[in-house]
Design brief:
The chain folds into three domains: 5-124; 135-255, no CATH class; 260-308, no CATH class. 53% of the residues lie in helices and 6% in strands. It has 14 helices and five strands. Helix 7 (161-171) links the parallel strand 1 (153-156) and strand 2 (179-182).
Length: 312
């Protein structure tokens, strides 16, 4: 799955095996108690699973089933967030807010299907004014966007980094020069993949495993360190580790110093034991181990070497 599986580590666990089964199970719970915020959260997850399933099998011209699934997800997750308390009040409430962002990223993918990669918020939005992430994920998204070279394409792992980077890129409007590819969506959404491959002129390699190497021949590619390791490139090409991302491709001169990244929200979230703090810390910890200059910056925000895996 692309959207629902991206958040399977969030409080509340992964949805049931198929969208219809999970929807029916959540609706049965709500029939007993319509004020059950966790049941609304489960229903929202189930609709996102249904969206993934519909995208994987749909014909190019028919977007009715995925749109209906996203409409159901938005209604359920907005209700869950309202019932489960304000931001920071509960792990489940924060998860509902992150899942809402994932749902809106699905709407943007549908807009790309119809209008191309330049389809703006007028094609899929505007997003609701209360669409927000927790500060630690907003900070992660901003840091990932900052790390990428000018004109690059950011590839995300899809668990925590995908909604974070998508929100900052498309809702907040940061780094409009960057393309954005959640790897799970590339693999699981053939209509969206074909549209991007055509617009980026990847040719026949856009349909197979060689797409990333083909893309890196045309423009810089940066891969989030939410991955344990970057996806393979074609023979003769290599990834270069930089703070928070691996980079390949042409014109990589604009290097971002480690001191330019910000970790204030991470520190606050860890101190408050927030639900998403450890997920963000895992990304930063891997980055610090691969690019040790980040350790000094993390330390200036009061984050110890033990917390992030730096040698003190």
């Amino acid at each position: 799955m692309v959207l629902a599986a991206a958040l399977s580590q969030a409080p509340g666990g992964a949805p049931a095996a198929t969208g219809p089964d999970a929807i029916a199970a959540a609706q049965a719970r709500l029939a007993q108690d319509s004020g059950d915020g966790r049941a609304w959260l489960a229903l929202g997850r189930a609709y996102l699973t249904a969206f993934d399933e519909a995208q994987a099998r749909r014909a190019r011209s028919d977007s009715s089933a995925p749109r209906a699934a996203l409409d159901g997800a938005e209604q359920a997750l907005a209700r869950a967030a309202a019932l489960l308390g304000p931001a920071g009040a509960s792990a489940e409430g924060d998860s509902a807010r992150v899942l809402r962002v994932a749902g809106w990223s699905g709407r943007a993918r549908l807009a790309v299907d119809g209008g191309g990669v330049r389809a703006g918020t007028d094609a899929w939005g505007p997003p609701p004014p209360d669409l927000r992430l927790t500060p630690v994920l907003e900070e992660l998204g901003e840091n990932l966007l900052r790390a990428c070279p000018t004109g690059g394409v950011l590839v995300t792992a899809g668990d925590v980094d995908a909604p974070a980077a998508w929100y900052l890129r498309f809702v907040r409007g940061l780094r409009p020069d960057l393309g954005f590819v959640p790897l799970a969506a590339w693999r699981g959404d053939p209509v969206w993949r074909q549209r991007l491959a055509a617009e980026w002129k990847l040719g026949t390699r856009g349909a197979g495993d060689g797409w990333l190497g083909a893309l890196a021949q045309r423009r810089p590619v940066c891969v989030s360190m939410a991955f344990e390791r970057p996806p393979p490139l074609r023979a003769g090409m290599q990834w270069e580790p930089r703070p928070l991302v691996w980079v390949a491709g042409p014109e990589q001169g604009d290097r971002v110093p480690s001191g330019d990244f910000v970790f204030a929200a991470l520190k606050l979230a860890l101190d408050a034991h927030e639900a998403w703090a450890q997920a963000a810390l895992a990304v930063y910890g891997r980055a610090a181990r691969l690019t040790p200059t980040l350790c000094e910056t993390l330390a200036t925000y009061g984050l110890s070497g033990d917390q992030v895996g730096c040698d003190e």
